[in-house]
Task: structure prediction
Amino acid sequence: MLHLSKLAGATLFAAALMTGSAFAQTVLRSSDTHPDGYPTVEAVKYFGDLVKERTGGRYEVEVYHSAQLGQEADTIEQVRSGVIDLNRVSMAPWNSLVPLTMIPSLPYLFTSPEHARKVMAGEIGDEIAKGFEDHGVVVIAFYDGGARSFYNSKKPVNSLDDLKGQKYRVIQSDVFVDMVAALGATATPMPYGEVYSSIETGVIDGAENNFPSYESAKHFEVAKYYSLDEHTIVPEVFVMSKTAWDKLSDEDKAIFRQAGKESMEKQWELWDARVAQSRKIVEDAGSQITTPEKQPFIDAMVPVYEKYVNTPELKDFVARIQAVK
Ligand code: GTR
Result:
């Protein structure tokens, strides 16, 4: 595939030389921690196809999946400094840089994946996206990050009591650390790529994630107890480095933005299919899924809201998200 598309680029380039028109092709490198075929990886490829087609081949996107370019915290630095052009990560590792991203990372804020999609695709999403521009990147799209739940290698979690004293890996974000502490467990922030071996060797009891990540990263092989507490729905974010963005003409910027929007809709479609597929894979492999009552989890999160939603402006922002139906 790679060879073919390179060949197509080379042919176009040769054609341009022959007709005497100036034709430069720019290859944009994009990072993703997930393996090939994962909904975010495929959505970015789709974005690349649209951009290539609509710019007549002047831009091409190469997706480096499976953390080939590094773990998320590192690739965020790379895209901010323009070392890579594009990056698709969770919003949570941006929390310390872009304060407003903490709000959609809050537990039990979104009432359903549909609610999260509607908020992030609307004006609230636009306001959150603005905050990224002070940090070297432009948001191209928000994707669905699904509902995250706890899983561990030790025992089924049927209630809050079962979580007490357990040690869970979390994303490198203070909101996540405080959220797990509020539930009576211990949080250990670590890169995604280290989770499998850390569970396997007993450094941690488990982690928390959506069905597609739990399945594709093979965490179900080492942590078979998955409790559907759905404590948070954290959007994914696909960004472009400002260095690369500023080189685009206004016309091309519009093409990129439109392709971003279409890739978001594509990702939603792929996401829904993958959630069902991943759930089936883990169930067939022997994962034991429990469904604890959510209200005690929700009640336990009060201190997290008190800590992070601590100004009248942020309270208003949260209320606006809650009001989106
Ligand atoms: C996944 C998310 C990844 C990564 C991972 C994690 O759901 O798609 O971008 O953040 O979680 O827990 O590190």
User: Anything to note?
Assistant: The chain has two domains: 4-98+107-145+235-278, 148-233+285-323. Residues 51 and 256 are 6 Å apart (CA to CA). The chain is about 45% helix and 20% strand. Residues 148-233+285-323 form a domain with the D-Maltodextrin-Binding Protein; domain 2 fold (CATH 3.40.190.170).
